[in-house]
Each structure stands twice: as structure tokens, then as C-alpha cells.
Write a structure and sequence with these properties.
Layout: E1 4-8, H1 15-26, E2 29-32, H2 33-46, H3 54-60, E3 66-71, E4 74-79, E5 82-83, H4 91-101, H5 104-120, E6 123-127, H6 130-134, E7 141-145, H7 148-157, H8 164-173, E8 186-189, H9 195-212
Helix pairs in contact: 1-9, 2-4, 2-5
Bound molecules: 2'-deoxycytidine-5'-monophosphate.
The site of 2'-deoxycytidine-5'-monophosphate has 14 residues, from helix 2, helix 4 and helix 8.
Length: about 210
């Protein structure tokens, strides 16, 4: 069994940046699960299907030519063999991804792919349901958050149009695996912390727990 580090939190909480550096420091693979839901959303939209048409979305799943791979020690998504990058952060994807992520069949498919990574290697995985659903028994769970103003400012600084409050509301209120802090996750509010401080808190915690295991 390989270790799995679960990092969850709301949109623009800084969890991707933190998870990526934690993975580098530990020599683990960084898995961005939001990119997997975004890729599925991009594909649905590119096929002219409305995300509200749940049955049409489900029908598309078995034939979706998406592959979930790695480049170095970082997860990537390929469409017909081509890596998707800018496609994943467009305004259309930002405003439709919560609807796609609320479909249980989409989640089942992607959660299986996420677990597959950990059958081969140690991972730092970030998302919304990693500590609650994907790896419920890992002892390494972190819930990374920040005030709404700080998160809005971070997204704006990335030059993206993204209604994060709206996305968080949808992601937290859906029936299937909603965004929620696992009871055994450590809560870290990053509003007044630097990235280095957050990374150090998580890495120290993992090292302490690993020594006790
Ligand atoms: O992390 P992100 O903002 O790129 O995620 C995009 C969306 O994908 C997010 O609004 C909800 C969904 N998501 C999810 O439902 N479960 C995950 N594990 C990761 C993301």
C-alpha cells in the first residue's frame, strides 16, 4: 500500500499550489482531481451537450476519449492523446463544472481513476471529496480554506473569471459527495499564512504521523 495524502477545500483556497509543493517535498505524485472534472466538462460542452441533460452526459461517458496520465510527477489529462491545458480554465468550464461534478455516474468513473493512481504510487491528491470518499481511511487529511475575499482576490490575480462563491454553494449542497471537511481532517485557514507556512504545517504533520505509524 502506498501513502495517500488528501487535501480538500473550496475553490481558490490555495490547495493546488500547496498540494503540488507538498508532493515535490515528499517525492510523491501530485494529482489534481479538479482537472479531471474540468476535462469532462470541457468534453461535454465541446460535443454540444447541455450539462443539465444528465442522461445525455451519462451516455457520453463510456466513449469519452479522455485519458488520465502523468507528466513527470504531476497528473495530466489527455484528449485523443493531446494534453489539455488552457481548455480547462475557460469561463464556460468554470461556470458548468459544478453541474457535471454533481452527476453520480461522472463521480464514480473519476473516483475509480483517482484510486488507480494510488495502486501504483504514493500520491498527494487535491479536490473536494478526497478525505471523505476517495481515501476515507488515509490518516493524512487536510482541509485547506481561506476567507472568501482572499479567495476572490487570488482568482482575480490569476486573470480568471470564476464565480467561486456560486461554485462553492453548488459543490457543498449537491447530494453526491459534497464538499465537506472530513471529521478527522486537519483544518488549515490560509488567509493569513504564506504558501511556505502551509506547506511546512502539512509536511511536518505527515512526518510526525508517519513516525508514529
Ligand atoms: O479544484 P477545481 O476548482 O479545479 O475544481 C473544479 C470543480 O470540480 C469544483 O468546482 C467541483 C469539482 N470537483 C469535485 O466535485 N470533486 C473533486 N474531487 C474535485 C473537483
Amino acid at each position: 500500500m502506498f501513502p495517500a495524502i488528501a487535501i480538500d477545500g473550496p475553490a481558490a483556497s490555495g490547495k493546488s499550489t500547496v498540494a503540488r509543493i507538498v508532493a515535490e517535498k515528499l517525492g510523491y505524485t501530485f494529482i489534481n482531481t479538479g482537472a479531471m472534472y474540468r476535462a469532462m466538462t470541457w468534453y461535454v460542452l465541446s460535443r454540444g451537450i447541455s450539462p443539465a441533460d444528465t442522461q445525455a452526459v451519462i451516455a457520453l461517458l463510456p466513449e469519452a476519449p479522455l485519458e488520465f496520465g502523468k507528466k513527470g510527477a504531476v497528473s495530466i489529462v489527455l484528449y485523443n492523446g493531446r494534453e489539455l491545458t488552457d481548455e480547462l480554465t475557460g469561463t464556460e468550464v468554470n461556470s458548468n463544472v459544478s453541474a457535471i461534478a454533481a452527476i453520480p455516474e461522472v463521480r464514480e468513473l473519476l473516483v475509480n481513476r483517482q484510486r488507480e493512481y494510488n495502486t501504483r504510487e504514493a500520491v498527494v491528491m487535491e479536490g473536494r471529496d478526497i478525505g471523505t470518499v476517495v481515501f476515507p481511511s488515509t490518516p493524512f487529511k487536510y482541509f485547506v480554506t481561506a476567507s472568501e475575499e482572499v479567495r476572490q482576490a487570488r482568482r482575480a490575480a490569476q486573470g480568471q473569471q470564476d464565480s467561486i462563491a456560486e461554485r462553492d454553494r453548488k459543490d457543498s449542497s449537491r447530494a453526491a459527495s459534497p464538499l465537506t471537511q472530513a471529521p478527522d481532517a486537519r483544518l488549515i485557514d490560509t488567509s493569513d499564512l504564506t504558501i511556505d507556512q502551509v506547506v511546512a504545517m502539512i509536511v511536518d504533520d505527515i512526518r510526525t504521523k508517519t513516525a508514529l505509524l
